[in-house]
Design goal:
Shape: flat
Radius of gyration: 25 Å
Strand order of the largest sheet: 1-5-3-4-2
Distance between the termini: 63 Å
Structural class: alpha/beta
Number of helices: 14
Low-confidence stretches: 132-144
């Protein structure tokens, strides 16, 4: 890391209007207004931008951001109009690879972010490697001793090649299913099995999950994948598989929204309703304890 910072310091840093610095197209990493962003904003407010962002020059004399999307966002929050920048000459595919590599250093990365980032990097490496030979249907990365691109990405990211393959498969999921994976409601391996279903079959599965609030196990997704491959997976089959009791499944309490929505203002989200109910139960439990203590 120190060698990298020394290299950055040796590069020429220029200051440009932030309005001329565009985000990277299809940037796969989310920029959130969370606690971490608040800390970054406070740091920049006190000390300025200590590390220049990295960008490449575009044909229209604008700049395309490669590394530093969070810093740019923090500057915009603070109303800072200029930002220190290092401009590097690189092709589109080289920019994709550097953008992914620089952002994979983040402490917290969602599965959907890894999925999109690995896919973008793999496609860029494939284009750089060119058309594969007849003997090898998978392109090899340049200057990596004949390793396949997936192996190179895995080695650089500290993952196994199979794990990289699993993350790339997540790109085949519908947005609703991918969100369930990000929320930890569907594991990576079950999600990979689901990714082989047809889109309509995935939507039927989402409908069941939304209705019953039950998520599939790995074994259930394997069965659905097999039925899909045989052309036998329909709504009835999904319902039958998903309605089976899972080993160690905990009992669930279900309350219809119609029974409780009258207690909340119109427009209250389901998440807000859930949080309010939990707080009410905590208050009820505390009152019970106080009542017992008074006896």
């Amino acid at each position: 890391m120190d060698e990298q910072n020394d290299g950055i310091r040796r590069e020429k840093v220029r200051v440009v209007p932030i309005q001329y610095v565009d985000d990277f197209p299809d940037h796969p990493f989310l920029v959130k207004d969370d606690e971490s962003m608040e800390q970054l904003v406070n740091s920049i407010r006190m000390n300025g931008v200590l590390n220049p962002v990295i960008a490449r020059k575009k044909e229209d004399d604008r700049y395309e951001l490669i590394s530093g999307h969070r810093r740019k966002h923090a500057c915009k929050i603070l109303g800072i109009e200029q930002i220190p920048i290092i401009v590097r000459e690189m092709s589109r595919d080289e920019a994709v690879i550097e953008m992914v590599d620089s952002n994979l250093q983040r402490e917290v990365i969602l599965p959907s972010e890894k999925a999109k980032a690995y896919k973008m990097k793999m496609d860029a490496m494939h284009r750089k490697a060119g058309r594969p030979s007849k003997e090898n249907c998978v392109p090899l990365a340049h200057n990596f001793d004949g390793k396949r691109t997936r192996e190179v990405i895995a080695e650089e990211a500290g993952e196994s090649p199979d794990q990289v393959r699993r993350y790339v498969r997540l790109n085949e999921l519908t947005p609703e299913l991918l969100e369930f994976v990000d929320e930890g409601k569907i594991g990576l391996r079950p999600a990979v099995e689901i990714s082989y279903l047809q889109e309509e079959e995935m939507r039927d599965l989402v409908d069941y999950i939304d209705t019953e609030d039950v998520f599939p196990s790995h074994a259930q997704t394997i069965r659905m994948k097999e039925l899909s491959r045989e052309g036998k997976l329909n709504t009835e089959a999904i319902n039958e598989i998903m309605s089976e009791d899972k080993p160690n499944q905990r009992p669930r309490v279900k309350i219809s929204l119609e029974r409780i929505e009258k207690y909340f203002p119109e427009g209250t989200s389901e998440k807000q309703i859930e949080n309010t109910i939990i707080k009410a139960l905590e208050y009820y439990r505390q009152r019970q304890r106080e009542s017992r203590d008074e006896r």
